[in-house]
Amino acid sequence: MCTISWKKGKVNLEKENLSRSYRSHSQGRLYIVGIGPGNTSLLTLKAQKIIEESRVIIGYTTYIRLIDNLIKDKEVISYGMTQEVERAKYAIKRALSGDNVSLISGGDPGVYGMAGVVLQLLDKEEDRIKIEIIPGVTAASSCAALLGAPLMHDFVVISLSDILTDSKLIEQRIELAARGDFVIVFYNPKSKKRVRPLKRAWEILMKYRSGNTIVGIVRNAQRENEEVVITTLKNMLLSKKIDMRTVVIVGNSKTYTKGKFMI
After folding, report:
1. Checking DSSP bridges between strand 10-14 and strand 100-105, what pairing results, if any?
2. Please, what is the Cα angle at 209 between 208 and 214, to 5 degrees?
3. Left (φ > 0), alpha (ψ -120 to 50) or beta: where does 82 sit?
4. Percentage of residues of the chain with pLDDT beyond 90
């Protein structure tokens, strides 16, 4: 964990001992704030207002950097990847001390975000702090907008990360969604070490869908180095664009392309 001080727009990371105790008799506030895809033009007005009014900002380092123009005068604590529980615990601790805290979540905090982590950790603390969840634009929406209108009818969202969900259950959900002819949005499709889940998803889909099914692949949606590709299911695994910054949208039997759009 580290705090971030901001000077003339540059980020300075410094290790800090945060074991000191915080004491306050006032009721703290904990805002779990969705910042959308990371482009501040897509940040909701309420999210921006809450961040500006918060004294303490806590979040994953990448998300913190995306809102650096809003938090130059704040106390900022950043964490690395996979430290969601640590982030949530510290945010609760600071709110209990009487601080107004914004816990930053990419996309929408209720969609594979920080809201669930915080609420699961709470015991009796909810009576001592005010908690508010601020929605944000989730990746499914931001990516769909770049592709056209692939989510016009029924769709499902499935994360291929098996950190919190058993891989067999993930595969079962993919199979049911494929059989039901849903458009499927895959979050967290592939990492450097985790390649098999995407291949298994493809194998399952090929049992139920034509190889010519339309597939949209979006990397770094609404951010710098954004990449948008429309391909087919049979060629999906050939794409070099798929990683943890990518969302894959697999169309259903009615999905088609019109010009540059996926519909």
Report:
1. unpaired
2. 155
3. left
4. 80
Q: How many CA atoms lie within 13 A of 146 on its CB side?
A: 23
* CB contact at 8 A, 162 and 197: yes
Sign of the torsion formed by the C-alpha atoms of 96, 20, 47 and 186: negative
What token pair was written down for 194? 């985790």
| Pure H helices in 74-187 | 84-96, 114-121, 139-147, 167-179
In degrees rounded to 5, what are phi and psi of residue 176? Answer: -65, -40
> What single-letter DSSP state applies at residue 16?
-
Reported as a single tens digit per residue, the pLDDT across 178-213 is: 999 999 999 999 998 899 999 999 999 999 999 999
Q: How confident is the model at residue 25 (pLDDT cuts 50, 70, 90)?
A: low
Residue with structure tokens 């049979």? Answer: 234
DSSP code of residue 26: S
Under CATH, to which class is 140-262 assigned? Answer: alpha beta
> What CATH topology corresponds to 2-137?
Cobalt-precorrin-4 Transmethylase; domain 1 (3.40.1010)
